[in-house]
Each structure stands twice: as C-alpha cells, then as structure tokens.
Predict the structure of small monomeric GTPase.
Amino acid sequence: MVVHVNPGSHHRARAITMDTNQQKMDANILLLGAEKVGKSALTVRFITRRFIGEYGHIDSIYCHSDRIDGREVCFNIWDSLYPQNALAAGEVNEKQLHWADGFILVYSICDRSSFNVVRQQVQHIRRCKKPSGTAPVIIVGNKRDLQHRRTVSSEEGRLLALSADCGFFEISAAEAHHGVLLVFHELLELIREARALRKGTAGIKNIVRSMSAVFGRRRTE
Ligand SMILES: Nc1nc2c(ncn2[C@@H]2O[C@H](COP(=O)(O)OP(=O)(O)OP(=O)(O)O)[C@@H](O)[C@H]2O)c(=O)[nH]1
C-alpha cells in the first residue's frame, strides 16, 4: 500500500525501529539531487514498478511496505525538492539530515552540473551528519539509457562514491525496475549494518564505562 503524506506532519521515526522479534523494520530514506534528475521517477518506479514519464514538482514522503528476506520492511521515502535558494544549493537542511537513516543522491549522467550538486551534497552530509559508517549514502547516476548524451563517465561516478565511502549504481529508471530495486535494497542493507555498528559502539561504550567505574572506585579505595 502506498500512503502519501505531508512531510511537515511526519514525525521523526526512531533511527530504525524493529519490533522485539526483529520481524519489522522501518527505514527513512531521503532522495537528494538537482532538479529533473529523476528523483520522483526512481521513487515511483520502486513503489509501483512503473515509469510514468512526468511527475510534477512536489516535495513528498511516501510510505511503502514490502517483505524482504521474510521480514516486513516499511520504507518512508522523502522525495525532496532541490532548494531554489542559491545559498542553500548543495546543502541538506537540518530537518532532513536528522530525519534520514540513509540517503540516495541522484544525478543525471547527461548533466554535469547535477553531478557537481551530488558532490557538494555528499560532502555536506559527511561534514555535518555522522561518520560514514552511520550515515549510509548511495550515489546514483540515472538516465543510463541516454548514452549518446552522456557527459559524466561511469568512472567519475565510481570514484566520487569511493572517495566519500558511498555505494554507487548507474541505472535507468525509465528502462527498468531491477536497477532501482537494487539501489533501495543495497541502502537498506547499509542501514542495517549502520544500526548494528551503532549498537556495537554502544556496547563498547558500556564496557568502558563499567571498567572505568571499577578502576575508578579502586583508586579511591
Ligand atoms: N530518459 C530518461 N528520462 C528520465 C529518467 N528518469 C527520469 N527521466 C525524466 O526526467 C524528467 C525529470 O524526472 P523527475 O523524476 O521528475 O525528476 P526530479 O529529480 O524528481 O525533478 P524535480 O521534482 O523537479 O526535482 C522527467 O521528464 C522524466 O520522465 C531516465 O532514467 N531516463
């Protein structure tokens, strides 16, 4: 089922929530990138498996549930608008950074300026948000069907992703559902890993705290 909700009324979900049986998982996914690169096309392709051509210019959060590896997954997908304000260009606002568990940064392989936007946005995320391991990002070069108009090579995309510790895919939302599916599933996997990492870090912190409590007490005895 697809539910269309107003971003303003959407509450920040827990980073990722799972029920006690680990059967259900929520993931907040933010799509970023310049205008007209295919953010809505990717979102709609993932949710409905269809490519409808024109999507309008709207900022929306879509809820989509799916069963993956026997577990129910609820995707909250924020199809964002690129800011018109030149000062905010290349930046990701605080609310979005806080909301997202994972990011899909989209550029068009035939639009170099959109590639530069993704470069700025990934740098901004890495600067502002969290260490890379806890803020999963996938970079997507879209419109692969338009090879004859390509201005950004696959190599450049891959290198950017490598340098910023991100996943990378080149796809065509227009041509196929499969590539889009891989993007979302890979991001989900990275989100799972990030969550496990956070849990592990918390575990180590607790051990360190307990040990310093013990040794601290001894020193004062
Ligand atoms: N050839 C081709 N066209 C695509 C592809 N994906 C999207 N488009 C087209 O690119 C245009 C923009 O797509 P959108 O999905 O609206 O792009 P967007 O990034 O959401 O745009 P904004 O909402 O304005 O920021 C539309 O005309 C789409 O049909 C693709 O893979 N190949």
Summary: The first strand starts at residue 2 and ends at 5. Residues 178-220 form the longest helix (43 residues).
